[in-house]
Design goal:
About 40% of the residues lie in helices and about 15% in strands. The chain is α/β, with parallel strands linked by helices. The protein has two domains: about 15-40 and about 290-380, Aspartate Aminotransferase, domain 1; about 40-285, Aspartate Aminotransferase, domain 2 (3-Layer(aba) Sandwich), CATH 3.40.640.10. A seven-stranded mixed beta sheet has the order 1-7-6-5-4-2-3, with helices on both faces. Strands 10-11-12 form a three-stranded antiparallel beta sheet, covered by helices on one side. A two-stranded antiparallel sheet has the order 8-9. Helix 7 links the parallel strand 4 and strand 5. The N and C termini lie far apart (about 50 Å). The model has no long low-confidence stretch (mean pLDDT about 95). It binds pyridoxal-5'-phosphate (PLP). Pyridoxal-5'-phosphate binds next to helix 4.
């Protein structure tokens, strides 16, 4: 650290130089991320609540109310206005909280949780942190968890099952209602990771897409992760964890004697209220109509991209269910590196080896047209 501070001008000159190195959502180059350019109204709300701390919520009762209302709105969307939970730092914290409830609720000495192999790596972190064994189940030809294998994997140590509604690599939706029934029949905790799909599937269903139930409508669902900082268009950090009701919170709470509230359930202690305010602002401002429009735009562009990729001709890993396209390419690493030099960030799933594109709200048709031109050049050259 230097002795004498720099001027505002110098600071911002230096910040701009480093910021230039970053990919920008507006260029369309970010095709690999489940995050997107935050909505201007969400940004404004975020800035307004920047100094708030939900870790000391008694000092910020207005911000706490925004969090409660944001959770209620998300709960209502997912068929449970009584849902209790938090706007947390992201899907990782949300999934960790869900497994923490399951572990503390069951009190088994060697707890096991059944997850599909497609589950996000945040479950590995959660399992390691909580000393839970993850039992990973293979997928069927649609990249969904194999139900028969889930049933077979249940042992006396099993405390819970996880299903994913919008897998990270393929956007596949596990058979949540079957998993819910298995969980109910075996008295197991059931968590749905809808970090990506939770703010898209309800709107696609309203638009007439044939997607099975995946939320609290199913009696076996105990908790759902749904992230406003993904398809919700809120700035990072804004993840969502919803439990069926507030009776679950006692499995998380620790005493916080020196603060303005005496108990705390989240992993983070000091935590911003800006994410809750931005989420509240987005849900109120966009409403169902706005989110439906966004989901429709993303899914239509996804279908366009998938059809154009087939014409190249390249083989899709699966027909897109949500706004993710994965396709097989020879020498995928080389193609990805050439694309990156041209300003396109795409990712490289391994199951199977392929290229993955997430069509988020910042992606426009012209971006995809330009991307396809470059992709064609690189696959022709291999
Ligand atoms: C399905 C799913 N769950 C959880 C996460 C983790 O979310 P975060 O990166 O916000 O912690 C992701 C991230 O992409 C995800 O796709």
């Amino acid at each position: 650290m230097q002795e004498k501070g720099l001027s505002e001008n110098t600071i911002f000159k230096l910040l701009r130089e480093l910021h230039k190195k970053d990919f920008k959502y507006d260029s369309g180059g970010i095709l690999s991320s489940m995050c997107t350019k935050p909505h201007p109204i969400a940004k404004k709300a975020y800035q307004m609540f920047l100094e708030t701390n939900l870790g000391d919520a008694g000092l910020f009762p207005g911000t706490k109310q925004l969090e409660i209302e944001a959770v209620q709105m998300l709960g209502s969307l997912l068929h449970n206005p009584k849902a209790a939970g938090f706007i947390v730092s992201g899907g990782t914290e949300a999934n960790l909280l869900a497994l923490r409830v399951a572990r503390n609720m069951y009190g088994v000495s060697k707890p096991e949780v059944i997850v599909p192999i497609s589950a996000h790596f945040s479950f590995d972190k959660a399992a390691d942190t909580l000393r839970i064994k993850l039992v990973k189940i293979e997928l069927d030809e649609n990249y969904c968890v194999k139900i028969q294998s889930v049933k077979k994997a249940i042992t006396k140590n099993t405390i819970g099952i996880v299903g994913v509604a919008g897998t990270t690599e393929h956007g596949a939706i596990d058979p949540i209602s079957e998993l819910s029934e298995i969980a109910e029949a075996n008295n197991l905790y059931f968590h749905v990771d809808a970090a990506f799909g939770g703010l898209t599937i309800p709107f696609l269903k309203e638009l007439g897409y044939d997607i099975p139930e995946f939320d609290f409508k199913l009696k076996g669902v105990d908790s759902i992760t749904v992230d406003p900082h993904k398809m919700g268009m809120a700035p990072i950090p804004a993840g969502g964890i919803l439990f069926r009701d507030n009776s679950y919170l006692k499995y998380l709470e620790v005493e916080t004697p020196y603060l303005s509230e005496l108990k705390q359930a989240t992993i983070l202690s000091t935590r911003t209220g800006a994410g809750a305010a931005a989420t509240w602002a987005m849900l109120k401002h966009l409403g169902k109509e706005g989110y439906k429009e966004s989901a429709q735009r993303c899914i239509e562009l996804t279908k366009y991209l998938a059809e154009e990729i087939k014409k190249l001709p390249l083989e899709l890993v699966m027909e897109p269910v949500l706004n993710i396209v994965t396709f097989k390419v020879k020498n995928a690493e080389k193609v990805v590196s050439c694309l990156r030099k041209r300003g396109w960030a795409v990712s490289l799933p391994t199951y199977p080896k392929s290229i993955r594109i997430v069509v988020m709200p910042h992606v426009k048709k012209q971006h995809l047209k330009n991307f396809l031109k470059d992709l064609k050049k690189f696959i022709d050259k291999r």
